[in-house]
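2024-03-11 09:14:02 DEBUG pipeline.ingest accepted 1 chain
2024-03-11 09:14:02 DEBUG pipeline.ingest length=369
2024-03-11 09:14:03 DEBUG pipeline.predict start
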Amino acid sequence: MEGLPTTTKTERRSRSKNLHTSKPSLVMAFFSCVAWLYVAGRLWQDAENRKLLANLLKRNIEQKPKILTIEDKLMVLGCKDLERRIVEVEMDLTLAKSQGYLKHQLPQSESSSQRKLLAVIGVYTGFGSYLKRNTFRGSWMPRALIWIFRWLLLSFLHVLSALLWFLTGGALKKLEERGVVIRFVIGRSANRGDSLDRHIDEENSKTKDFFILEGHEEAQEELPKKIKFFFSTAVQNWDAEFYIKVDDNIDVDLEGLIGLLEHQRHQDSAYIGCMKSGEVVSEEGKLWYEPEWWKFGDEKSYFRHASGSLIILSKNLAHYINTNSASLKTYAHDDISVGSWMMGVQAIYIDDNRLCCSSIRQDKVCSVA
């Protein structure tokens, strides 16, 4: 027991005092570190803010107002002024187009008169309608020549027929001098340049009375598109008061038709014909079947429209078709298609039963051949 170290009371008191005095020092050191970290963080944040402010100030200095060119102004304004001008020019172009100043207007040909015509008559024909065309040509031939023509058809004397075509060409020229242009309207064969196209070209080289729609394919199911193509192209080739579509199986009294048109000469927005309506055929396979029959309501009845045998449109309506041809909807039949287009404009419907080709009226201007 004597050899073991002993601790005096004084020593124990001294150690206890040192332990008590070291705790506040540690606390103070901890808070000093926290304060240092806070101050350092604020200084770093202030430095970042100063850097950001310096960059913004530099950017603002670089974007100081300067003398701008016209191109710079258009870029700054988002080309709004240019867009507005483009819209105005497009509106002016549409207005000019509707008034006859057309883009891609074809140069005046020998068939196009410098003066305004009374009417352009497009006679719808097909590749197999040679005899129908010869019959229709009788509508502008003198009566004596008609009988000679029929005799030549029966005799198949082609040389004399060519001579007669020369004489009828003179009659066609006289009609044009009176302000009436007549042309047989036909498209091109699905097989471009085949015998069908060549026969039409050969016939046209002799008669000079065809209006060939180069961009249209001649087919029965394409007739509604053909009438849109005809009106659009006709207004670009001739300046006339009226544009007329007539079938080649119709006998037309040209003098009576010219008198009717003279009476309506200054009538704008005129939609003239034998007005009718009727039942929509919804059963596939039947004559006059309408694939989009459901669009005509539960009653399945067509709206009022001019019979397809003979349709007359005034100049501004024909120009309307030309201007809007890309967006005009066509149905299964050409007369229904035209009637639907007229419903969307302020067209004046003129129902003239002299244009009803199946009518029994004595003064009618057309009849079924």
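2024-03-11 09:14:41 DEBUG pipeline.report Residues 230-369 form one domain.
2024-03-11 09:14:41 DEBUG pipeline.predict end
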